[in-house]
Design a protein that fits this description.
340 residues; alpha/beta; ten-stranded mixed β-sheet; 11 helices; 41% helix; 19% strand; binds nicotinamide-adenine-dinucleotide
Length: 340
């Protein structure tokens, strides 16, 4: 393993539990024997304190260079303050596809065993374009922006993924009964792309009905394709099928860069206590390894993670154990060494 490539990766540890979960994940990744050159940057309130900017220019330059980042959660003020770091990064690097696989881990008891869902969320358009204004005091508006280009490329991404990975069915989730022009455009673009992939079944469901259908019977779905806001909400709902936000991974993918991050937030209620679960970020890091063409290492880490969950001896509190973040990481590393 001595002559192997060093992967340059931009690292944004984030705040709250971010530094704890990223620290654990880095230890596990380095235990695979792969070489990484981590380019570490602060973002959000921490960056502002030091550099008077929420996203330092050096961070942007690093992502432009490495084209891949691993990111912990960053606290975003509610109802004021600075714009979400995530939304800003997604816009800046045009990371138009948010990819969230939802699959059970062994040993985690949920009401929904055997779930295997892929959620593809459009990441750059819709109500998240950030065009809000207060027209007069007491009246505020937000602009929902949908483009043919944006709707077509995310549909293409979803169907290409289905073709490449042998997935059977895609449902486009919408509210075109009410949002006739915006969601109507999404449906028209998606139907056009669907015609080019006859081997992938295509369906359409209205988003409110979808929430009810998901909770009743998630197994009827294989892949969900959603615009930005519906995707944000529905993907968190789906994380509950497999044990919640502490477990599921996420990736933000574009043509020129990719940012891998956990779906959960900075969890200020448990920050600094060494009890956060690093599984979500670790699963995101496994996606990152695959993106870096390190499938063998990804398989090894995944097998080690599954072993620790199967044994149930060293799990964090959110999943019914009493191990610390670091003890959990040690257990995954030990399982990795045995597996490797
Ligand atoms: P949260 O995900 O931080 O916490 C929700 C609940 O889940 C809390 O009880 C928390 O303790 C628990 N939890 C979350 N992650 C966990 C983990 N890894 N291990 C164990 N328990 C975990 O959601 P929130 O409280 O709504 O948000 C807190 C802050 O995070 C807000 O400022 C929000 O804007 C920000 N946020 C950031 C991101 C991101 O950077 N990707 C995503 C979502 C929220």
């Amino acid at each position: 393993m001595n002559n192997q490539k060093t992967h340059a990766v931009t690292l944004i540890p984030g705040d709250g539990i971010g530094p704890e979960v990223t620290g654990a994940v880095i230890r596990i990744l380095e235990a695979t024997g792969l070489k990484f050159a981590w380019e570490r940057y602060a973002a959000g309130a921490e960056a502002f304190e030091k550099f008077k900017t929420y996203i330092p220019n050096d961070l942007y330059e690093s992502v432009e260079r490495t084209r891949v980042a691993l990111k912990g959660p960053v606290t975003t003020p509610v109802g004021g303050g600075f714009a979400s770091i995530n939304v800003t990064l997604r816009k800046k690097f045009d990371l138009y596809a948010n990819f969230r696989p939802i699959k059970n881990l062994p040993g985690i008891k949920t009401n929904y065993p055997g779930v295997d869902l892929i959620i593809i969320r459009e990441n750059t358009e819709g109500l998240y374009v950030g065009l809000e204004q207060e027209i007069v005091p007491g009246v505020a508006t937000a602009l929902k922006v949908v483009t043919e280009k944006g709707s077509t490329r995310i549909a293409r991404f979803a169907f290409d993924y289905a073709r490449k990975h042998g997935r059977k069915k895609i449902h486009c989730i919408h509210k075109a009964n009410i949002m006739k022009l915006t969601d109507g455009l999404i449906l028209r673009c998606t139907r056009k792309i669907a015609e080019e992939y006859p081997e992938v079944a295509y369906g359409e469901h209205i988003v409110d009905n979808t929430c009810m259908q998901l909770v009743t019977n998630p197994y009827q779905y294989d892949m969900l394709l959603l615009e930005n806001l519906y995707g944000d909400i529905v993907s968190d709902l789906c994380s509950a099928f497999v044990g919640g936000l502490g477990l599921v991974p996420g990736a933000n993918l574009g043509e020129h860069a990719a940012i891998f991050e956990a779906v959960h937030g900075s969890a200020p209620d448990i920050a600094g206590k060494d009890i956060a679960n690093p599984t979500a970020l670790l699963q995101s890091a496994i996606l990152m390894l695959r993106h870096l063409d390190e499938d063998q290492a990804a398989d090894r880490v995944h097998a080690a993670l599954e072993k620790v969950y199967t044994e149930q001896k060293t799990l964090t509190r959110d999943v019914g154990g009493n191990a610390s973040t670091n003890a959990f990481a040690d257990a995954v590393i030990a399982a990795l060494e045995i597996a490797g």
